[in-house]
Amino acid sequence: MKKFLLIAALSLVACVGAFAATDGQTYEPVNDIKMVNSWILDRFHTPSTFPKAEYCNTRARTAVMSNGVIYVARSEVKQAIVAPGDTVSQSVIYRLDAKTGEELPALDVTLEGKPYGVFLGVNSIGADNFGHVWVMPYTSEKATDVPFYQLNTETGELTLIANLSKGDKLARTDYYDVMGDITREQAECNVMNAGTQVATVYRWHADQGSEDFEGGFEGDLSLEIISFFPETVTEWSYGPVVRMCLGSSEDDMYTGELFYVDGFNSVPALYDVTGSLIDSFEEVDTELYPEAGTNGVAEFTLEDRNFMVYSIAQYAGTGHGCQSNIVELGEGMALGGMTKYWQIPADSLGQVSDGGNRVHCFNVEYGQENGKDVVTLFTFKSYNGMAVYKIGTDVNPGPDPGLKGDINGDGIVNVSDVTALVNKILGEAEYSDAVCDINGDGVVNVSDVTALVNIILGA
Questions:
Q1: What are phi and psi of 453, to 5 degrees?
Q2: DSSP secondary-structure letter at 289?
Q3: Taking all residues of the chain, what is their mean pLDDT, rounded to a whole number?
Q4: Which of 148, 333, 350, 365 could form a Cys-Cys staple with 43, CB 3.0–4.6 A?
């Protein structure tokens, strides 16, 4: 009778959650460097859960990993009341545990204590080099300024850092990059954007300790690029991405004097602050070329080696599905000498159109595992999925998220594990509390049975 009542209670406490899996791939070591997938949550590997998530939406365009948490920014989620008769479509920041992919409480975005409902108001989200999270909106070619906000990662409240002027060159802005410290307490701050359907690059700079942002091109707010790759390109198309490179010394670490631009109709190309084309894919094996129509690139270092990750195709790519290449750069960090290590995922994140968002987000965090350096890489493609990979000389995947809920230890998660968990709760069987605490709240009870059933049903 007790067991019947416990099972019957499921219908009263059922909840929905998205549970991650692994991509199921084995990535062979290259030059003694290994890579493993920690977890993945996407259309291809978790087709029953990811499409149901609130962050699987064409208005959830960008995401970032910071201090062990994934932040996914979605504009215009719900109607929120600002005043009687006045509502706005409030933005929300969704959060996930970077180690497991488990969902954390979401943040309703507010500004000056009121719901924040600007059109595409959190189009870009990122983190500076000191762990501060920022958001910036899309702006049209008619807007004269770009608001730049810091996000309170506990409350969702925005604080205006600055209204960044576009000067006398007005272009549409979609996605941004930030380097240094947005608070200017520990370092300078640089902000960049490559305008849409123009050849204009914006750059704003603030010295450490300064309250003001000024033009980052020797005082100028923008710069016109005249050299492209391929050479047939004369301006970027939709949603280009700019990504600044860390300097090689303490003096120039956060100056961002070299930067990539990856445009819808081009491939990643490296520029300096004079607008000169420093490097491109011209000398790269054509098999490593990304297909047109996808934008995303980032660099990282490991074991005194320099790496780049870049998107190779969107959802419609030939033989691909929102995948990326990880390559080691050549001597002097030359693109032409790059060596491919892996393609991630080896199969796919998904192949569903996001309506033309283009951007593919990457960022890394550095740490140690077994006393050795480890890079944790986060990849996110709007409306298709996300994943976390660990890269190092001695990395291990850890517990397979797909086996979470294997109460009886038979290597399969199914109804027999529900029976085992119910028996544990009724005191009729002994299993580890750590294994049985499915929802991670520190208590083993009927809510864990609900969570286990959701895993089995893919809910």
A1: -60, -40
A2: P
A3: 91
A4: 350
Strands 372-381 and 385-392: antiparallel
Q: Say what percent of the chain tops pLDDT 70.
A: 92
Q: How far apart are CA 126 and CA 107, in angstroms?
A: 15
Whether 281 shows a pLDDT value over 70: the answer reads yes
Residue among 166, 208, 164 at smallest CA distance from 189: 208
Spatial contact of 312 and 320, defined as CB atoms under 8 Å apart? yes
CA 204 to CA 456: how far, in whole Å?
Answer: 50
Which residue in 214, 107, 104 sits closest to 155, CA to CA? 107
Lowest mean pLDDT among 103-107, 252-256, 435-439: 435-439
CA distances from 176 to 29, 63, 172, 215 (A): 34, 12, 12, 15
The three-state secondary structure class of 124 is strand
3 state SS of 272: strand
Label each residue of 137-186 as H, E or C.
Answer: CCECCCCCEEEEEEECCCCCEEEEEEEEECCCCCCEECCEEEEECCCCCC
DSSP annotation of 333 reads G
255 secondary structure, DSSP code: -
Q: What is the reported pLDDT for 456? A: 74
Residue 458 gets the label, from left (phi > 0), alpha (psi -120 to 50) or beta, of: left
The Cα 117–Cα 227 span in angstroms is: 38
The secondary structure of 205-266 as a DSSP string is EE-TT-S--EETBTBBSEEE----SSTT--S--SS-EEEE---SSTTTTT---EEEEE-TTS
Q: Which amino acid is at 53?
A: A
Q: Are 31 and 56 in contact (CB under 8 A)?
A: no
Cβ atoms 176, 193 nearer than 8 A = yes
The pair of structure tokens assigned to 62 is: 């960008």
Burial of 112 (0-12, 13-18, 19+ CB in 10 A): exposed
